[in-house]
Design a protein that fits this description.
mainly beta; 7-stranded mixed β-sheet; 4-stranded antiparallel β-sheet; 0% helix
């Protein structure tokens, strides 16, 4: 099992920026994909972005394309989510997740962090 710890959440005004971090530990050798999901009150957990740790290839939900950037630092075993031009609808608990293969569903991922709260004021 992969252990993931998110950090960097907080309160930001609409139009502002925030950077989330996810540190991975434990069994990571069979984990190629690291992704971000978010869940707002009353909504299902939704895919935000993912990155291949090996190739660096990135994937984004349409709702965040052009505003969010996912990156990784393999030496630190850490993945980042840079969030710019934040909107009130971006407010949610953000979760880091790990998987062997890319997928859009939460069930495609078998390692999860505890989540970090992102609040966007309008």
């Amino acid at each position: 099992q992969v252990q993931l710890v998110e950090s960097g959440g907080g309160l930001v005004q609409a139009g502002g920026s925030l950077r989330l971090s996810c540190a991975a530990s434990g069994r990571t050798f069979n984990t190629n994909i690291m992704g971000w999901f978010r869940q707002a009150p009353g909504k299902e957990r939704e895919f935000v972005a993912a990155i291949s740790r090996n190739s660096g290839r990135t994937y984004y939900a349409d709702s965040v394309k052009g505003r969010f950037t996912i990156s990784r630092d393999n030496a630190k075993n850490t993945v980042y989510l840079q969030m710019d031009s934040l909107k009130p609808e971006d407010a949610a608990v953000y979760y880091c997740a790990a998987a062997a293969l890319l997928g859009p569903r939460p069930t495609d991922y078998d390692g999860w962090g505890q989540g970090t709260q992102v609040t966007v004021s309008s």
